[in-house]
TrEMBL record:
<dbReference type="Pfam" id="PF00581">
    <property type="entry name" value="Rhodanese"/>
</dbReference>
<feature type="domain" description="Rhodanese">
    <location>
        <begin position="185"/>
        <end position="298"/>
    </location>
</feature>
<protein>
    <recommendedName>
        <fullName>thiosulfate sulfurtransferase</fullName>
        <ecNumber>2.8.1.1</ecNumber>
    </recommendedName>
</protein>
<keyword id="KW-0677">Repeat</keyword>
<feature type="domain" description="Rhodanese">
    <location>
        <begin position="48"/>
        <end position="155"/>
    </location>
</feature>
<dbReference type="InterPro" id="IPR051126">
    <property type="entry name" value="Thiosulfate_sulfurtransferase"/>
</dbReference>
<dbReference type="InterPro" id="IPR001763">
    <property type="entry name" value="Rhodanese-like_dom"/>
</dbReference>
<dbReference type="InterPro" id="IPR036873">
    <property type="entry name" value="Rhodanese-like_dom_sf"/>
</dbReference>
<dbReference type="GO" id="GO:0004792">
    <property type="term" value="F:thiosulfate-cyanide sulfurtransferase activity"/>
</dbReference>
Length: 310
């Protein structure tokens, strides 16, 4: 074999290998905060390592199979059932106890996954960040990605020793109803409604009143995920275009809300992934705002009905 042929074949081999790597890591997407999103290969490499803690927050299926060493947490345990607003996040004291019982330590890297196209993993991500645990990551594509990559599945229930989780509240990550009232119409603030267009327009009503907070923009939370197979996050360029299309840009303060803050947590995570720094979640969301007869609302559905009746 002559030298030129060897060089050519070597180049072809390198090219094929590079394409294979690109395919394997295509879901990584070149995000500004890419460390927040890990793929199945990364998780597989770190399973069982000291300081690595994996939490499965799927609604069902843990007993039938899960990522090795993962512990299960029902996302319902993050709900404060004593709070007057339905679905509200549990208190500092309660999350400390919950995480300690689960075995979480402050010095651990926590990796969370759900089925894939859900909000459970991001809800826990937001809760942990709000309560001061900075080293939290999500498995891109969730359990669907793990299965699609043909990774090892375990049925063994992982028993962990008691953790030492200590919470420190980051108050700048959450806003209340009275705060939001002051933000309506402000040029430097984007009220970001991530519910369905039908909820935003008031066509689908899940509270006493339908519609949206005045001046809020709308982009449904699922639009940042791929819809062809495993629900990986779209790449950074595509997500950025979607966000810019509704006026969500890093230069402004972004306040995210949905119905009970679950979908809002998914967009909160997306914005963190995209490098946004000034992001807060309206924890009460529409379940609070829409049920309060004294809060202002826009209801395009009613306006359209009125116009048609003229």
């Amino acid at each position: 074999m002559n030298r030129r042929l060897v060089v050519v074949l070597g180049f072809v081999f390198v090219l094929i290998s590079a394409l294979g790597i690109e395919k394997a890591y295509a879901e990584d997407g070149d995000y500004p905060n890419a460390h927040l999103l890990v793929n199945a290969n990364w998780v597989e490499e770190h399973v069982g390592q000291e300081g690595m803690y994996i939490i499965d927050v799927r609604k069902a299926g843990y007993d039938q199979g899960h990522i090795p060493t993962a512990v299960h947490l029902s996302i319902d345990k993050l709900v404060d059932k004593d709070h007057p607003v339905e679905g509200y996040l549990i208190s500092k004291r309660k999350i400390e106890q919950l995480m300690k019982d689960l075995g979480v330590r402050n010095d651990q890297t926590v990796v969370i996954y759900d089925e894939g196209k859900e909000t459970s993993a991001t809800r826990l991500f937001y809760a942990l960040e709000y309560y001061g645990h900075d080293n939290v990551r999500l498995l891109n594509g969730g359990y669907q990605a793990w299965i699609a990559a043909q990774k090892e599945v375990s049925k063994e229930v992982s028993l962990k020793s008691k953790g030492d989780f200590k919470a420190t509240i980051k108050k700048d990550l959450m806003v209340e109803k009275e705060d939001v009232k002051q933000m309506v119409g402000k040029e430097d603030v984007v009220l970001f409604d991530v519910r369905s267009p039908e909820e935003y327009k008031g066509e689908k009503v899940l509270a006493r009143r339908g519609g949206h907070i005045p001046s809020a923009v709308n982009l449904e939370w699922t639009t940042v995920l791929k819809d062809d197979g495993v629900p990986f996050f779209k790449d950074a360029a595509r997500i950025s275009k979607l966000l810019e299309g509704v006026g969500v840009i890093p230069e402004k303060s972004i306040v995210v809300y949905c119905h009970k803050a679950n979908r809002a947590s998914h967009m909160y995570y997306t914005l963190r992934l995209m490098g946004f720094e000034d992001i807060t979640v309206y924890e009460g969301s529409w379940i609070e705002w829409g049920n309060d007869p004294n809060t202002p609302i826009n209801n395009p559905s009613k306006q359209e009905k009125g116009l048609r009746s003229l």
